[in-house]
Amino acid sequence: MPTKIQGELVCPDVSIAIVVSRFNDLITTRLVDGATETISRHGGNADRIDVVSVPGSFEIPLAAQKLASSGKYAAVICVGAVIQGSTTHHEYINSQVAAGIMSVSRDTGVPVTFGVITCESMDQALDRAGGKVGNKGVEAALAAIEMINLLKKL
Ligand code: INI
Questions:
Q1: Looking at ligand 1, which residue's alpha carbon is closest to its atom 11?
Q2: Which of 71, 115, 143, 145 is the most exposed place for a label (fewest CB within 10 A)?
Q3: What are the chain's domains?
Q4: Dist. CA 130 → ligand 1 center (Å)
Q5: Is this model's pTM higher than 0.85 or not?
């Protein structure tokens, strides 16, 4: 029988940081709410959540790096919303944010999760911020909890 190893979805009493972009804050505040509520509902300590805001999604990786390397946080949850405009500006932001978040996680060994919505319209963003397609902040918080627990086992 293979040995199955996975992280539980029970949040230990640890400090967790959420990095949020203020750009499209109608969306991103909902993502923060989803993430914090998820941590609490899964047993985490809401008093140990720090919410750090940055101007736009492009700035998320740098703040995440500082937080993840501080040794204070068991995980860093990144939330933002990049909505396609009439230029290719969003493509540059998206590629850098996704790659930046991944390299922070790999470099520090701290789970840094990706709750950044990348979509074509405000309606699509609302759908993914607590609307009919769920909430990316919830997803990113669940991934953080699971990874915190998984890393302890590996
Ligand atoms: N930042 C976002 O988080 N979402 C966007 O949709 C967006 N658009 O479309 O421009 C955006 N731009 C700002 C960017 O993240 C930086 O803050 C800015 O370029 C300064 O570095």
A1: 56
A2: 71
A3: 16-153 (3.40.50.960)
A4: 21
A5: yes
